[in-house]
Structure formats: C-alpha cells, structure tokens
Design brief:
Elements: H1 11-22, E1 24-26, H2 27-37, H3 46-58, E2 62-69, E3 72-79, H4 81-104
Antiparallel strand pairs: 1-3, 2-3
C-alpha cells in the first residue's frame, strides 16, 4: 500500500465498493483498478490486499471461486448478500467520518 497510513482503515471499504461496482474481481485486478482510479497515487500491495480479502471472506462478506484463464487458475472474489449490505454501512460511516474531519480541519464550512 502507499505510504499513507490513513489508507489502512479504509481498505475494506475500498474493496467492498470495488466489488459492488464490478461484481467480481481477482486480487491483481483490484490493485490495478485502485491504481487506475487514483492516477497512481494509491498503490495497494499484496501484503495489504490479501489479508484484507481473507478477513472479509472469513467474516462472510465475500465468497470466492476459481476459473482457468489462459491456462492459469484465477481466484475471484465477489460480495455475499451480507457483504452487499455492509458496503452501504461502510460507505455511510466513511462519509460521516470525512464530514467530521473536514469540520475539524476547517476544510469547508459546516452545512446543515
């Protein structure tokens, strides 16, 4: 992952949102999508990504399946029903946190 320590707390949210938007993805594809969407500003490492994927799977948020692509076995991840519900919850939490952070850092005036 990039050197920004703030990313660690949002990695699960990022993964869940990408899977919601793309239905199914494999690990390397996730890293490349993050790189593409952030113009290279955020680089996920395998050492950060795979433990997060395994935790989400253990928690019942993701399911996996394999396919053979170009004579190689590729492991795909997709949301479970529970994972689909968790995306909404995590995105709401992230939005609320960002709004509070903006207020604390005076990045924008309070709008209510």
């Amino acid at each position: 992952m990039s050197s920004n320590p703030m990313l660690k707390g949002t990695l699960q949210t990022i993964i869940l949102k990408l899977l919601e938007d793309n239905n199914r993805m494999y690990g390397y594809e996730i890293t490349q999508k993050v790189k593409e969407l952030t113009a290279g500003e955020i680089m996920l490492t395998e050492g950060a990504l795979y433990p997060a994927l395994h935790k989400l799977e253990a928690d019942g948020m993701l399911e996996t399946f394999t396919e053979v692509v170009d004579n190689r076995v590729r492991k795909y991840y997709r949301l479970t029903e529970q994972g689909g519900k968790e995306v909404t919850s995590k995105l709401n939490e992230a939005q609320a946190f960002i709004e509070q952070l903006q207020l604390l850092l005076n990045l924008k005036p309070a709008i209510k």
